Amino acid sequence: MDSLISSEWIESAIRDYIAEAQDAHYEMAAEVATAVETMRALPLWCDWNGGVAIRPNGELIGFRWDEPQSAKIETDPHSRFLACVEGAEKYGELASLLPTRTVDDRDCAACNGTGIILGFEEHVLKNLRCYCGGAGWLPSNVPDLPGS
Prior knowledge:
Strands 1-2-3-4 form a 4-stranded antiparallel sheet. Strands 5-6 form a two-stranded antiparallel sheet. It has 148 residues and is of the alpha+beta class. It starts with 6 loop residues before the first helix and ends in a 10-residue tail after the last strand. The chain has helices spanning 7-23, 29-39, 77-90; strands at 42-46, 50-54, 60-64, 72-73, 106-107, 137-138. The chain is built from 3 helices and 6 strands, in the order ααββββαββ. Helices cover 28% and strands 14% of the residues. The protein folds into 2 domains: 7-97, no CATH class; 100-148, no CATH class.
């Protein structure tokens, strides 16, 4: 784990996430709170099925909302990339997770390097993200979106 991110901060953010979910009034709020409590990890990137979270020790884990007990270390480079991009965007304290583009990396073919889904340039949809997570580029170990 990056030494700039303390386990205490992650643990505090997990408690805050759980409290916010418990106080929320959306349909799956209770399930979200229970899942995060079970995993003891802070969700960084998620969708309807699950996502990637960070544990206090810095491990990135993949999880499913309906099976949080089966969370395991995330090995997919695309999922890890999305989690770091979105996590750094959501939490300033995680800025050191933001990947740095190298000469081997490339513009995202799905958005032509803009970070915005083509055809949605004039819409501001925070929950609808490009394949690159809005970064505009992809690491060399992440394949392009099929068909792009």
